[in-house]
Amino acid sequence: MQNETKITAKDLCPNRKITTDEIVFSARDLKFTRPDGKDIYLNLTSSQIDNASSTGIGCICVFQDATRERELEEMKLDFVSMAAHELRTPLTSVRGYLSLLKEELAPSLKPDQMSFIEKAFVSATQLTALIENLLNISNIERGSLKLEVEKSSWRNILENNVKNHLDFAHERNIKLSMRVAKKLPEIYVDRFRISEVLSNLINNAITYTSPGGSVEISVETKDNALVTHVKDTGNGIPEEALPKIFTKFFRVSGPLEQGSKGTGLGLYIAKSIVDMHKGAIWVESKVNVGSTFSFSLPINPKVETDQIIREKIKPSA
């Protein structure tokens, strides 16, 4: 079984002529239950050979026991989740007290003293964001990250995210604009999670664009989907890095690394959230010209049964 779908003999050894050796089927982490009731996980690869008819070999199937590998992955996820949870509470206190110091002691502090508190607050905020990302990664890997989907105004979600980044764009001397039609179809999304995607893309665009540049958010309707583009005039991404850009912990080397404190988790999380919405995400980029990150969301998606749908119910008169 693979994702509750039966794997048949035809999948492993299709009845067709081939001219060269080739892999015809491959699957990872297939679950098998042994006679003693213990579950094991196997990786399966099936190959056909070009001289099969003369040798009487239909196909060659290779099974690799991945149970231990999966157990180690589970242990790693357990550790990451536990460590992140343990760090979250004291960090919340640290940020709270630093915020209080900023407000209460600001009039009596010298500029350099106030600068120290500001830097400590920024660092604590960055560490908090890292912990939240690690928790998200843990939930994504376990398949326990669920969506709370509701019918939403995509224009309103975009406007709120753009407003949240206006101060950052102003600090960086970046022109942040939105080019969106007044009327857009309403879509079913998890407002919080999809805002994480938008925030990550907009924040990255501003961060990697030089002062005086611009970032534009636009939307188009295409093939029963809303396609959102986040276009910048920044440094651009090398062509060889594009296939790996949404990979966990991947960071682009070179000019994009300078001054960046990223962990390589944001785009991986963004892709995972978009995938859960049955959408797609991609990027087009050219070095020294800029990048355009785009993602599509279906206007009328087929919602999974394990997702929570929250419809607005009008009270009866």
Helix content class: 25-40%
- The helix-strand sequence is HEEHEHHEHEEHEEHEEE
What is the CATH homologous superfamily assignment of the largest domain?
Histidine kinase-like ATPase, C-terminal domain
Mean pLDDT: 83
CATH class of the largest domain: Alpha Beta
Strand order of the largest sheet: 5-7-8-10-9
> Which secondary-structure class do the elements indicate?
alpha+beta
Distance between the termini: 51 Å
What's the multimeric state? single chain
CATH architecture of the largest domain: 2-Layer Sandwich
Q: Tell how many strands the DSSP assignment holds.
A: 11
Question: Which stretches are low in confidence, meaning pLDDT under 50 for 5 or more residues running?
Answer: 303-317
Structure write-up:
With 317 residues, the protein is an alpha+beta fold. The strands form 3 sheets. A 5-stranded mixed β-sheet has the order 5-7-8-10-9. Strands 1-2-3 form a 3-stranded antiparallel β-sheet, with helices on one face. Strands 6-4-11 form a 3-stranded mixed β-sheet. The chain starts with 8 loop residues before the first helix and ends in an 8-residue tail after the last strand. Strand 1 (22-33) and strand 2 (39-48) form a beta hairpin. The longest helix has 39 residues, at 67-105. Residues 303-317 have low confidence and may be disordered. It is globular. The chain is 39% helix and 24% strand. It folds into 3 domains: 9-65, no CATH class; 70-142, Signal transduction histidine kinase, dimerisation/phosphotransfer (DHp) domain (Helix Hairpins, Orthogonal Bundle), CATH 1.10.287.130; 148-298, Histidine kinase-like ATPase, C-terminal domain (Heat Shock Protein 90). Helix 5 runs parallel beside helix 6 (191-207). Keywords: Kinase, Phosphoprotein, Transferase, Two-component regulatory system.
